[in-house]
Design goal:
Radius of gyration of chain A: 16 Å
Helix content of chain A: 25-40%
Distance between the termini of chain A: 46 Å
Largest interface: A-B, 39 and 40 residues
Number of strands of chain A: 5
CATH class of the largest domain in chain A: Mainly Alpha
CATH topology of the largest domain in chain A: Arc Repressor Mutant, subunit A
Number of domains of chain A: 2
Order of helices and strands of chain A: HHHEEEEHE
Largest sheet of chain A: 3 strands, mixed
CATH architecture of the largest domain in chain A: Orthogonal Bundle
Oligomer: homodimer
DNA sequence: TTAGATGCAAACATTTTGCCGCGAT
DNA sequence: ATCGCGGCAAAATGTTTGCATCTAA
């Protein structure tokens, strides 16, 4: 795995943003620092970092993945009004241990999505 | 809202399938009964039913939405090996009441996804 | 020096949409 | 008879990929 300026800045910008950006939003931010950056590089880098467990891919029903630069156990609140995604800093694994012990198969991780209207939109 | 044979059969087939199909998979099933059905109709109907709260749209990171014909509180297990989605018949809202009371904004619903390897793939 | 990474553009997969004719009410 | 709905195909969207070039190691 080669260290390139693109990879450095993509991860750096993702971690600086608290907004769980889409690939396109992240691309626009990175572009300010590397004007020649391409979409292909952004996607390839995001997938690489995800596969190495350094970032998390979030799927919501609005077609495009969101990306989260932090991998500690936490959950997400999705605002159905503005589309914003907010962190819920809580590890739920202890609360849900009962469920997990009853699931057939091997559990690797879990993720809770809370849907609603954020306080800014209320 | 007009009652048509297409809408009847789309909902019927979705509820018969326990597999949380993609739109394409569902389309293929419906096509056996209505050979002239179009993708547009399937998508329009799924969105209509979702907006009316009769079915649920599930988003996973593998690009296409899955659809669930049942809306009672339950969760999902996603197998990273075969891509299958299995129901976890449990309402977690009581267990997570603490989290919900601390989320800023109005919570409408929540959904837990458990990622792992299902027992068939182990 | 060279394997691996980037940039670019074309290809892809999925979903959405406009239009017109049809059919449920 | 009306107007919402379905079929069709084109367009839009988000993502992935092939290839030539470049560059970190």
């Amino acid at each position: 795995m080669r260290q390139t300026i693109q990879r450095q800045i993509i991860l750096e910008e993702l971690r600086n943003l608290k907004t769980h950006p889409t690939a396109k939003e992240l691309y626009n931010h990175v572009k300010k620092r590397i004007p020649t950056i391409s979409f292909g590089t952004v996607y390839r880098t995001l997938h690489l970092l995800r596969d190495r467990g350094e970032i998390i891919e979030l799927a919501f029903a609005d077609r495009s993945s969101r990306w989260d630069g932090f991998t500690h156990p936490h959950q997400h609140f999705y605002c159905e009004s503005c589309g914003g995604v907010y962190d819920v800093e809580e590890d739920i694994s202890n609360k849900l241990a009962g469920i997990l012990s009853r699931v057939p198969g091997k559990v690797k991780r879990m993720h809770l999505k809370i849907y609603g209207i954020c306080d800014k939109c209320l």
